[in-house]
Amino acid sequence: MESLIRLAIMALTESNAADRIAASSRRWAGASLCALVALVLVVTSVGCTSAALWIWGIPRFGPVGAPLAVAGILLVLSIAAFALMRRTLRPRRMAPSPHNAASTALLADAMRLCKSNKSAALIAALVAGLAAGRSER
Predict the structure, then answer these.
(1) Fewer CB within 10 Å: N-end or C-end of the chain?
(2) The model's pTM
(3) What pLDDT, in 10s, does the model give residues 79-124?
(4) Which of the 8 DSSP states describes residue 126?
(5) How far apart (Å, rounded) are the C-alpha atoms in residues 3 and 65?
């Protein structure tokens, strides 16, 4: 019977985890929209800065040197961004999650319970379903 209670509690915990995932998705969507707006503003800023540098460089570097200076600066910035992107995308080693071990143990316990006492497993499933249905969304 203790296994049934533990299984019902785990089902309720998983329901709460689903609610947290939905809230996290909404936060990520808002953050993505803000990042998109920031990207548009940064691109506009780089364009304005390039035009100002170009205008400033015409009397100093001439009509050919000013665009070359602006292109060189933009090339250096793009190489730095590319290097940062490669470093960010490099896969990292992750430690094994203790949640996976707990899920495996819970699944093994549930399988053993189902084989030994089917009526108790059905009652536990009913309790878990009722607990999941009561959660507010």
Answers:
(1) C
(2) 0.47
(3) 999 999 888 888 777 665 555 666 677 777 777 767 777 777 777 7
(4) H
(5) 78
